[in-house]
Amino acid sequence: MSNSITQTSDWLRRFHPADAAPARLVCFPHAGGSATYYFPVSRALSPAVDVVAVQYPGRQDRRGEEPVDDVCKLADILAEELRSWTDRPLALFGHSLGATLAYEVALRLEAGGLAPVVLFASGRRAPACHREGSKVYLSDDATLLDTIKKLSGTNPQLLEDDELLRSLLPAIRADYKAAETYRRHPGAPLLRCPVITLTGDADPEVTRAEAEAWEGHTTGAFALHEYAGGHFYLNDHAPAVIARIREALVR
User: Fold this and answer.
1) Do the bridges between strand 23-28 and strand 6-7 make them parallel or antiparallel, or are there none, so unpaired?
2) What is the DSSP string of the chain?
3) What angle do CA 189, 194, 197 make, to 5 degrees?
4) Burial of 185 (0-12, 13-18, 19+ CB in 10 A)
5) Where are the domains of the chain?
6) How far apart are CA 111 and CA 174, in angstroms?
7) Which residues carry out catalysis?
8) Are 104 and 114 in contact (CB under 8 A)?
9) Nearest C-alpha neighbor of 212 from the set 200, 229, 195, 224
10) Strand pairing of 23-28 and 12-14?
11) Nearest to residue 121, comparing CAs of 186, 64, 20, 203?
């Protein structure tokens, strides 16, 4: 682990602590992702925004831990972890699986009287939009690896290290199970916080209609921003996405 990382708990990482920042952004990784995916976001937004990235078990410095394969279990843990981080306005950003998880965490925070100022939902269809038949987590290792490579969200150097990639398969499979078995609770209340949805115009995982459906999950303001690209459009549009986050938080 880099010396620049401040580990606040097993679950949270602060790469560039910004104690004087007026707002805090909590970032939730995609399936197979880790906290370090958001290192560039943290670097770009500090010191204006204090960025905290979530580290799921089963990867990097938590590789020896059992992965969690259920979104609601993860949300229960993380909502509790974040209660001590609400000393300033708290925003949530999640990509793919992370967007679903951020949504569930937002529900729990609002139920406890700690409403986020905004939820950024990136690269994920709205919680009410379920696709039948998607069970990548039940596939063999080769199919799972092929799926990861096709979505192009994994570090190219990691993709070339087959042995390392295979060692991460239990965590990746758990993430896919969490994403694919997730069902929004029928009685879930609407969020009160604004929702900003970001999506790639050629993302095979999210249609425009599925992205627009996020509007139905909040009584707050809603905005949709579409970028050229696939599921990991944000890799090619990082400056624009970061500017969008900054615009929403630094006012």
Assistant:
1) unpaired
2) --TT-EE-SSSEEESS--TT-SEEEEEE--TT--GGGGHHHHHHHTTTEEEEEE--TTSGGGTTSPP---HHHHHHHHHHHHGGG-SS-EEEEEETHHHHHHHHHHHHHHHTT---SEEEEES---TT---TT--GGGS-HHHHHHHHHHHT-S-HHHHH-HHHHHHTHHHHHHHHHHHHH----TTPPPB-S-EEEEEETT-TT--HHHHHGGGGGBSS-EEEEEESSSTTHHHHSHHHHHHHHHHHH--
3) 100
4) exposed
5) 6-249
6) 27
7) 96
8) no
9) 224
10) unpaired
11) 203
Low-confidence stretches of the chain (pLDDT < 50) are 1-5
- As given in the structure block, the two tokens for residue 38 are 């958001």
Global pTM value:
0.93
**pLDDT single digits (tens) 132-172:** 877 899 998 888 888 887 776 656 555 566 677 777 889 99
6-249 classified as CATH 3.30.420.40: no
